[in-house]
Description:
Elements: H1 2-8, E1 19-23, E2 38-43, E3 49-57, E4 69-70, H2 78-91, E5 99-106, E6 111-127, E7 130-144, E8 151-157, E9 160-161, E10 167-168, E11 171-178, H3 186-202, H4 204-211, H5 217-226, E12 237-238, E13 245-246, H6 248-265, H7 269-281, H8 309-324, H9 327-334
Antiparallel strand pairs: 1-5, 2-3, 3-4, 5-6, 6-7, 7-8, 8-11, 9-10, 12-13
Helix pairs in contact: 2-3, 3-4, 3-7, 4-7, 5-6, 6-7, 7-8
Amino acid sequence: MLHNYLETMPTPAPAKGFVAYEHNDIGNLDAFADCRTFKSPIKTIGGELIPDYFALVNEEHEPLPARPVSKGYKLVSHLEMFDQQAKQLKESSLPTNKVWVKDTVLDGGLRATREIHFNDLRLDLPAEGKFFDPMVARMDTINSVDMSWAFQAFAGAYRNYCRNTQVFGGEKVYHAKRKHTRNLSPESITANSIVGLDTFSNNRDYFRRMQTIDLNRDEWREIMETTLCRNTSRGAVATTDQSKKVNVALLGQMLHRYDQETSELGSNLWAGYNALTAWSTHVTEDASWVDADGKDRSRKARTTDANRVPHVQLQRQAKVRDVMNSDAWTAKLAA
Length: 335
């Protein structure tokens, strides 16, 4: 039936080239004004709905030059996503009065990027042949609506980047790359990139030291078992060390988050810190992970009422501080 749909659907307009717009206002979303995208049900020639597949259409319900997507595809519309990011930046402590922004829209709106340079925020990075190399902090966000690009967010001080996660002429302090599955939470990713850049810029020497300290998965598990995931209640589960009892579900989630961060930041204490802040920030995220005891928790993640989110975040941030003040963490930092 999907084949019949593809044969009979109206021929979409050919994809246009790209539009690049440079300006100095994070609230200016003019480049994405015509980029609202929606999922639309697909019908056969006989008028029957094709289950589990949707066409991508614009505001006028005109089909976009993209193949249909499945029901599990998380559509992230450029305009709504960059609007949310702009609001998050305005609420943050990052300096946004003197920014340089480059918005790029490609293929008639199928793909888009936003590049933000914070001219009031300069990071002095070590450089070969000289004491330091001053660079302006920046954030880059990449999105598509046609499955051609994964959703990505970069933050740090670097001269350029490529979509295979590499940066050139500097370093990234945060990076996330996620597929457009139902668990994708772009607002959480952009928020974490802001927090990462903000905290790094204010505490750069401390966090740069974290980047130099190796931390393997077993060491991370040991820290989690003795701090955040430690649970002495009667229902807690003992680990291989019978003297320890932990919250197995939380331990599994933290191991999952560690694996995500180390794949992008390397196996170091900085990746562990990012795993902690991701947990404290992404309260409403319906994450998927396999428990420490091997159980699949993909459909068992609890969501939090929107009104409770700020309170839960504060509680989690306090627990993160406890981890960073613990003997296990400070010993690793001092090693």
